[in-house]
């Protein structure tokens, strides 16, 4: 595999998108992967105790994009998005969470991948040297 240089990395088109059908609205909505900076902004800007509809509208404002990859909504649109069909908000938010690897489903998938990685390949050829942290703490 080729080792990439700076220009190749910065020029790579790596923001994936997915079009989600929304028959209730008469078309489809394009959900995009947030950039690193966009993800930081989304995650750091959230209050701890907000309503479900506000959280869903927030992730949708951060991830619904036009065909050119530009966000359709801003923070100022969150309240208006909250007034839309709750089932649609939930369905779109689920897609945004999945695409951006955010939320409980992403945590579960990461845990499953981690378990698979650990069971598939040991860092040591000897099982005795691969003691789990939980085994060590229970022996104290």
Automatic annotation (TrEMBL):
Gene3D superfamilies: Phage tail assembly chaperone gp13-like (3.30.2220.20). Residues 107-140 are annotated as: Disordered. It comes from Collimonas pratensis. Residues 119-132 have a biased composition (Polar residues). This is Phage tail protein.
């Amino acid at each position: 595999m080729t080792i990439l240089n700076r220009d190749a990395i910065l020029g790579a088109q790596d923001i994936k998108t997915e079009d989600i059908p929304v028959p209730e609205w008469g078309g489809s909505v394009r959900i995009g992967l947030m950039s690193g900076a966009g993800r930081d902004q989304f995650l750091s800007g959230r209050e701890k105790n907000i309503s479900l509809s506000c959280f869903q509208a927030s992730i949708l404002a951060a991830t619904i994009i036009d065909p050119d990859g530009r966000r359709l909504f801003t923070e100022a649109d969150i309240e208006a998005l909250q007034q839309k069909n709750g089932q649609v908000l939930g369905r779109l938010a689920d897609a945004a969470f999945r695409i951006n690897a955010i939320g409980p489903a992403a945590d579960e998938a990461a845990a499953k991948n981690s378990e698979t990685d650990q069971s598939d390949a040991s860092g040591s050829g000897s099982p005795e040297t691969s003691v789990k942290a939980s085994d060590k703490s229970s022996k104290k």
